[in-house]
Amino acid sequence: MYTLLDSCLDRIDIFEFLKHVEDGLNDHYDIKMLTYLMLVRLAHLCPNAVLQRTYSLSTRASTPALLGSRNLAHLQRDAVVRRRTYSVLT
After folding, report:
1. What is the pLDDT of residue 39?
2. What is the DSSP letter of 27?
3. Is the dihedral of CA 55, 21, 73, 47 positive or negative?
4. How far apart, in whole angstroms, are the C-alpha atoms of residue 18 and residue 42?
5. Considering the entire predicted model, what is its pTM?
6. Which residues of the chain, if any, have pLDDT below 70?
7. Residue 35 pLDDT
8. Helix, strand, or coil here: 46?
9. CA-CA distance, 63 to 57, in Å (whole number)?
């Protein structure tokens, strides 16, 4: 599937492809790790499609690696809000 992204991205239905990627998140640990690499690649190649499927992808994730990245994103968002609030007050 990873090679398919490199060779013929313009000929595949990206939303159908993402369904198969979601299935990879429910597989064994090795397949999950490869699926995460594929998600990173997809996020660079077609970010809008991945963004539209973010919720369904995140609900399928059950490993600490992705859960940690969701927590990190939450912390980063909070830091941005605090900076904006501080800049408005000063």
Report:
1. 86
2. S
3. negative
4. 9
5. 0.59
6. 60-90
7. 87
8. coil
9. 12
